[in-house]
Design a protein that fits this description.
It is built from three helices and two strands, in the order E-H-H-E-H. By secondary structure, it is an alpha+beta fold. GO terms for molecular function: GTP binding; GTPase activity.
């Protein structure tokens, strides 16, 4: 799904939750997985954010980043008209 041409240019926010747990898979472990699959992800804004839903750490920052990307993309990459050819 991540490689779908319909998602080309759509920002991708990945929330690495459970960062409040000592033995969780941290961002430094998850990031190389995304780097190895960059060819599938394509050219887009991407953020891998360490979060804890329990404490709220990182959640606001991640959502703000996504909102900023959407605002910027609305100008730089306006939405396609549904009737336009892809």
């Amino acid at each position: 799904m991540i490689a779908s041409e319909h998602l080309s240019g759509v920002p991708l926010l990945v929330l690495a939750n459970k960062q409040d747990i000592p033995d969780c898979m941290g961002v430094h472990t998850v990031k190389p997985i995304f780097n190895q699959n960059a060819h599938l992800i394509g050219a887009r804004d991407i953020m891998l954010m360490a979060t804890s839903a329990l404490t709220g750490d990182g959640v606001d920052e991640g959502i703000r980043w996504l909102v900023d990307c959407i605002k910027r993309n609305n100008v730089d990459r306006p939405p396609r008209n549904h009737d336009d050819k892809l």
